[in-house]
Design a protein that fits this description.
Layout (H helix, E strand, L loop, with lengths): L1 E4 L5 E5 L1 H10 L7 E4 L6 E2 L45 H13 L6 H15 L8 H61 L10 H5 L22 E4 L17 E5 L7 E2 L14 E5 L4 E4 L1 H4 L7
Parallel strand pairs: 5-7
Antiparallel strand pairs: 1-2, 1-3, 3-4, 5-6, 6-8, 8-9
């Protein structure tokens, strides 16, 4: 049995003499290929083995380079696993810091707080071979982005909170306006069902209650919830005919007051300060409603 040394300096074998003769015929080895016996130690050209002299072609003036046998499995011991460079310590924290910092735009800065902590940890964590520039750059970027989003939270709050408060105030004004319109409509429906006459002021809340959708119609969102009603009826319209009102669009029918069930009267019941930025919600005898500013309150028409 023989061992062959290929041109790639790898050993192939053991192979039998018959295999070598076949490889000579196939051109896979030649006279210059180094061969040794399996139990031998010396490498010699194949031409020096007399047992293969008859199989080798006549020697040419210039010796051919040793051929490498094909399709011979490489010994497992000769396989060397590729060596990869170690990943810099802390690079995962740096990447996470940057990602969480960017995600702060979608989480109102919540993830940015975590990103800031991870970025600082990544910056302060030492490596065995020094600080990796790429990791340090990612950590620095994550720290800066996270910090920027955290600093923007109070700024955004300063901008958004007043806008939200203003929006809430407008919504409450619309609720009060809708309440006033429903009360006016209830009074007009009562008049239609009672021979054109408005209810008596002392019982007007009780009289129109069945025409309203819910008892909360009597309550203004800005007023104290302890009061059952925050609207009063113009006493001058108590029991009179709707058709007798000369200027329905200018004559007060209901108006906001500090509170009380079946309240009726005149301007003396108006709240000392309007609940809608100083304005008072007023419903007129034709059914329309307005938020009346203080300067106009003295010019309201109370007589039918």
């Amino acid at each position: 049995m023989y061992t062959i040394l290929g041109s790639d300096q790898k050993e192939y074998g053991p192979v039998s003499a018959d295999d070598l003769r076949r490889w000579i015929g196939e051109g896979r080895v030649n006279a210059g290929t180094l061969v040794k016996l399996v139990d031998g130690t010396d490498w010699r050209p194949l031409a020096e083995f007399s047992e293969f002299a008859d199989a080798l072609p006549p020697a040419s003036p210039r010796a051919a380079p040793p051929a490498t046998p094909a399709a011979v499995p490489t010994p497992a011991a000769a396989r060397v696993a590729p060596v990869t460079a170690p990943k810099p310590r802390g690079s995962g924290l740096a990447i996470a810091s940057l990602v969480l910092g960017i995600a702060g735009v979608f989480t109102c800065g919540l993830t940015a707080l975590i990103g800031l902590v991870l970025g600082i940890v990544a910056l302060t964590r030492p490596d065995k071979e020094g600080t990796a520039p790429s990791r340090r750059g990612l950590a620095l970027a994550g720290t800066i982005v996270s910090a920027v989003f955290l600093l923007m939270i109070p700024v955004a709050a300063g901008v958004l909170l007043p806008a939200l408060a203003k929006g809430k105030s407008r919504a409450q004004v619309m609720v009060c306006m809708n309440n006033s319109k429903q009360l006016c409509l209830g009074l007009l429906m009562y008049s239609t069902d009672n021979k054109d006459a408005f209810p008596a002021g002392e019982v007007w809340c009780d009289a129109v209650q069945k025409y309203l959708g819910a008892p909360t119609v009597f309550q203004c969102p800005f007023a104290s919830p302890d009061q059952r009603s925050h609207y009063a009826f113009n006493r001058n319209l108590s029991g009179i005919l709707q058709s007798k009102v000369r200027s329905p669009a200018a004559t007060v029918m209901i108006f906001e007051t500090d509170g009380g069930w079946n309240q009726s009267g005149g301007s003396e019941l108006l709240p000392k300060r309007g609940r809608h930025n100083g304005a008072v919600m007023v419903g007129f005898a034709d059914g329309h409603c307005e938020a009346v500013i203080p300067a106009r309150l003295t010019r309201l028409r109370w007589e039918p």
